Sequence to fold (178 residues):
Amino acid sequence: MGRFLQTLCIPCILMGLTATVVFAQELDSTDTKNTASVERPIEEITVVGQQSLTRLRLRMDEKEAEIYNLFNANNSSRRMDIICTKRRPTGTYMLKRECEPRFLKQLRVEKARDARMGIGVGYSQLDLVGLSAQDFKNLQNEILALMASNKEFARYLADLVDLTENYETNSKAMLPEQ
Fold:
């Protein structure tokens, strides 16, 4: 109930302050018309409200997509492209977004094909990452080089960090500790 009153009172207070400022400016303008016409800048009040966790998560996904698109357009090799897919994990109806570099996806396909043929059965995600360690170093170097040369890419990454911190802060404040 307190939150409802708080959300109801804030706009009323802001409207009252705005009306007071406007009324005071009208009085000032009538006084100055008589003496001298001096223009004063209009004061501005900006109110930033909290966004829902869902909206923040959606903005983070949009920013990630922008980053991946910019990276894919400017990297040195198609093999380094970041590919995002949606899949439904076993036992759930919820779609999950997964992004990975093309070289990792290709390695997974190769290992699955080998397993069907009976060669090198049994591998985990950790095994795949270990096998492609050099590719991950190259990917990291590509990202760092693009950050250094492309200010827009660096700004997108900084925006994503801000969104992520905002999301984590709001989720801690909104969701009780378990």
Q: What stands out?
A: Residues 1-25 have pLDDT under 50 and may be disordered. The two ends are 24 Å apart (CA to CA).
